[in-house]
Amino acid sequence: MVTITQSKPVIAAMRAITEGSDRWVLADALVEVVPNGVQGLQDILDRAESEGVAGRLSVHTLRLYRDTAKMWPLDKRIDGVSFSAHREAIRTLTVEQAVTLLNQLARKYDKVKISDIRDAVAVKQGKAPTAPAPDGTPAPVVNGVDVLADLKSGAPQLINAIATTTTPNDLDKLQRGMSKALAHVESLKSKAARKGKSATKAQAPTVQPAARPAAAAKRRGDMRGL
What range does the domain containing 88 cover? Predict the structure, then answer.
């Protein structure tokens, strides 16, 4: 169990984050106090919540911060590149590969964005760029993976991305998000079905009434043609 004294530097770093402090401070503090496991992280989060400084942090987030700091030694971190960019780069690359990539991107851009890293990783892995949607909107890509293609194949990448340590609160959020996605798919299917029926109806041939025989017309006293 993490004591009050042990948790103080972490709580101070959490409080500083709300004021714009660098997230590396919190990540490094977590490595010092809870280098492994998640129980200590829960102890710290409980104390942070009691002091009103937890904000939107969760055990899962704290673990990501700590593990990112562990994977990125101080002498490897790139000046001027955000903590989030470091975390994104290390998700699919080794530290040495990530260092090279971030240095290249830092020379190319004033601010390295997550999308820049994902695009660069996709190119590095030899993956063809994803074709944009008909309206010109780029298809969603995560770590070089086409999200829609992943879903079509049974969502193996998405499933793998959901850690077994994900908190119940985050699992509820994931479930709500997927429910919204499913509802959107059902709505699109219904619209497509209605559109298909309308097109079929419009293409159906018009049946013209048969002409009445002349003899029948004459029997009714029609004198035309006499």
Answer: 74-126
